[in-house]
């Protein structure tokens, strides 16, 4: 009966591994939840920034509600179309009025029609 005293230790080891597995699943769940929340906030912020940037850089030509003034109506155009217009500056529109993240924020704002 030399082996018997080992059995309690084996049980503890197995229980320990089980607890570690459970903790690691819980641990994986939490950061994912936080990330999702951050993304939500990030998007809301982007839209606010987009509104400000629109007012500063686009409103004078495209109008308060993107209905078009001296320039075409742009409300609801896809973000891709808006970004390429910003980069290319079609016709008499100046190119690169906003760049990088700013351009994306404005594009999202325009795509959502200013909401
Ligand atoms: C100086 C005036 C002016 C400003 C400022 C301006 N635009 Fe324009 N935009 C124009 C004109 C004019 C056109 C039409 C060009 C053409 O096709 O002849 C145009 C075209 C566009 C188009 C394509 C519309 C279509 O249906 O072809 C988009 C999208 C656009 N602008 C977005 C923006 C955004 C976003 C901003 C701010 C970052 C901006 N514009 C700032 C004058 C302006």
TrEMBL record:
Binds 1 heme c group covalently per subunit. Pfam families: Cytochrome_CBB3 (PF13442). Coiled coil: none annotated. Keywords: Electron transport, Heme, Iron, Membrane, Metal-binding, Transmembrane, Transmembrane helix, Transport. GO terms for molecular function: electron transfer activity; heme binding; iron ion binding. The keyword Electron transport applies. Heme c binds at residues 58, 61-62, 93. The keyword Plastid does not apply. Residues 64-97 are annotated as: Disordered. This is Cytochrome c. It comes from Salicibibacter kimchii.
